[in-house]
Amino acid sequence: MLKTITTALLTTSLWVLPMTGSAHSNHCQDTQLGEQMESLKQQFKAYRQALSTTDWSQMRLAREEMLQLTHAAADEQPLKLHDLPVEQRPEMMQEYRQGLDQLTELLHQLAQAEQAQDADAASDLVGRIGQHSKQSHEALRKDCDD
């Protein structure tokens, strides 16, 4: 089981690394959403660290914070939205909110894995959350090189 957890953490770290190394440099300005996403990233890191030692209490705290940040992010708008023609904005906001809903569902599944103290399921979900976060970030990141 420890080997499975270690493998999952390494894999997740590799997924998240491209996003973490350049995440701030790709933002044109600091926003509330940017701060929330940075906090979410830090809580995800804390979760992965707690998972590596199967510290269920710390895992729960980090997941609860991630869930709060996800709910708060629903009230924000990605900067990229403002670069789109007005007629495309509702579709992008719908995709953004669907992504948040998917993340919320994954976090609820993670809570169930914690409740069952199923480290393998939690590891799998951490990988899925990492992949989802990477894909969402790529889809919504504003190109600030313009």
From TrEMBL:
Pfam families: Cytochrom_B562. It comes from the Bacteria. The keyword Signal applies. InterPro entries: Cyt_b562 (IPR009155), Cyt_c/b562 (IPR010980). Keywords: Signal. The keyword Heme does not apply. Belongs to the cytochrome b562 family. This is Cytochrome b562. It comes from Marinobacterium sediminicola.
